[in-house]
Write a structure and sequence with these properties.
Helix 3 packs across helix 8, helix 5 packs antiparallel against helix 6 and helix 7 crosses helix 9. Helices cover 43% and strands 13% of the residues. A hairpin with a 4-residue loop joins strand 7 and strand 8. The chain is an alpha/beta fold and 295 residues long.
Length: 295
């Protein structure tokens, strides 16, 4: 905006003309938007660049990360169990690790584990995941549990997610050891890490987050999160592109959880603070929270 002087004591405000993208007509009022010399907005250019992704270069970057952190997951071979809930995150992780077996310098085996909470007292249908594991050559283990009844009927938890997660992880830890695996891979991604940071801040007043890798001395088990540097959009795109058989959650609290509310809050904040997620996780790494500085 510019102010021009008309005569002493009188000013006229001149409003700069609004710009629009020559391709999508997006106005320049959108926060953070920029235009190039052709008048095309940054969002359109970003979309065009997605078509020119060098997947071979991406794979080399992935291999470089594997080389950098090889051996960080502890001694005892590379057999790894994957916690499969049936959601997109765990299925993408399962397929990625199954594919990685063919390229990784050290041979390792993958097993898929599912702890079925049996919400509403009924076992979930994982037949499509069983078929996927058969095609991948991955052994699949399902354990039917009474988590749904314990949490929603016996205890009638007002905030069930935390207890459910802890109990399910305990079951999965035991299943991993029974399967002969010393590593359990979890499907948490980058967005999960940001949401967990905010949930700890708002709900318990602590600056904390889950660690990309951690060791459970009692179980002699490593927990690893290979997707922790992948955004949720990337994971969802991979699941869609591979036509993975995602199993819809039948949890009574699905869609109204603390995590969902935090996700929506972050989405609103990002409208005023672009790159909020990367800034938050950058601060987490620099502060060394949950050993993120060692990653």
């Amino acid at each position: 905006k510019m102010i021009t002087k008309r005569r002493p004591g009188v000013y006229k405000r001149r409003i700069a003309p609004m710009r629009y993208c020559t391709k999508c007509t997006m106005p320049d009022t959108r926060p953070g938007i920029t235009f190039d010399e052709q008048g095309v907005c940054s969002a359109c250019r970003h979309y065009e660049n997605r078509k020119n992704v060098d997947w071979n270069a991406r794979w080399k970057e992935f291999e470089a990360l594997c080389d950098k952190y090889r051996g960080c997951n502890g001694p005892g071979g590379y057999d790894c169990a994957v916690a499969v809930s049936g959601g997109k995150d765990s299925l993408v992780l399962l397929c990625a690790l199954a594919a990685l077996r063919e390229f990784y310098p050290s041979r390792f085996e993958v097993a898929a584990l599912t702890a079925d909470p049996q919400f509403h007292g009924e076992p979930a249908d994982y037949s499509q995941i069983e078929e996927l594991c058969r095609r991948l050559g991955v052994p699949y283990h399902i354990r039917r549990t009474q988590l749904g009844r314990i949490i929603f009927e016996d205890r009638k938890e007002a905030n069930p997610c935390s207890l459910c997660a802890r109990m399910r992880r305990g079951i999965l830890h035991n299943m991993a050891k029974e399967a002969g695996c010393n590593k359990l891979a979890l499907g948490h991604h980058y967005d999960d890490a940001v949401e967990t940071f905010f949930m700890n801040l708002f709900n318990s007043g602590s600056l904390d987050c889950f660690s990309p890798k951690s060791y459970l001395s009692r179980k002699e088990l490593w927990l690893i999160r290979p997707l922790v540097f992948c955004g949720e959009r990337q994971v969802a795109a991979a699941a869609s592109r591979c036509h993975l058989p995602v199993v819809k959650s039948s949890c009574p609290a699905d869609g109204s959880t603390s995590r969902q509310k935090t996700k929506e809050l972050i989405a609103r904040l990002e409208k005023d603070y672009p790159d909020l997620k990367s800034k938050v996780m950058g601060a987490v790494e620099r502060a060394g929270i949950a050993h993120w500085d060692a990653v």
